[in-house]
Amino acid sequence: MREMFPLVAKDALVRRNGRVLVGPIDLQLEGKGTTIVIGPNGAGKTTLLKMLHGIMRMNGGSLDWGCAREEAQRRQAFVFQSPVMMRRSVVDNIAYPLQLAGTARKDARAQAADWAARISLGDALDRPATRLSGGERQKLALARALIRKPDVLFLDEPCASLDGRATREIEDILKQAAAEGTRLIMSTHNMGQAQRLADEVLFVLHGRIHEFSPAAAFFAGPQTSQAQAFLNGDIVE
Ligand SMILES: Nc1ncnc2c1ncn2[C@@H]1O[C@H](COP(=O)(O)OP(=O)(O)OP(=O)(O)O)[C@@H](O)[C@H]1O
Ligand SMILES: [Mg+2]
Known about the structure:
about 240 residues; Rossmann fold; three-stranded antiparallel β-sheet; 9 strands; about 40% helix; about 25% strand
């Protein structure tokens, strides 16, 4: 884990159709803790996460892990806001990444069944995953991402359409993963959740990192008026 970090972005920039979506950004992430990314709609949170994960092409600057890029890619996973379900059963969806990595089908399905139970889908093992509700899909996507025990997990609003109970389930799983050493980098619009999970907060505005602080300091009183306004629920220009 230690050798994967720091993750260093220098002048990193993502531009599409002549418009800068994110950057230029200078950022250094260390190997410990949970980073929560917050900011208004359209600020660039999703773009930033995808850029850091390496699935959004950069138009300038550099992004370097502490290890080789291929190794870093192998050791990280991403949970999308609207996860795609394969036309297979719940258990086979969760088992798929393990099977891809060479685990025998029986073993992979047994581990997947354990994960299904953890996300309260233990009774739905053989249901087609395409028929799950939005919230159930998000939980499945989390299990599918964690089953290979990634060292780094990016999550883009993983609880966006979940009710309170499912949100707690997800948070408990995330806390346990973090306690076991998984490095979490996650966006959310839920400030209660941000406070419960964050060790550090990245506040994004207009595609730039406006503030990057330890969570306790940030929630006690952000440095910038824009972050304060955002926490107050005001419109941030
Ligand atoms: N592939 C793309 N091509 C062009 N513009 C894009 C693309 N992806 C995102 N954008 C634009 O980039 C800006 C930032 O989008 P992004 O999805 O990163 O914001 P966000 O902070 O995640 O917002 P939200 O809170 O609504 O999820 C938006 O104006 C969006 O329309
Ligand atoms: Mg987004």
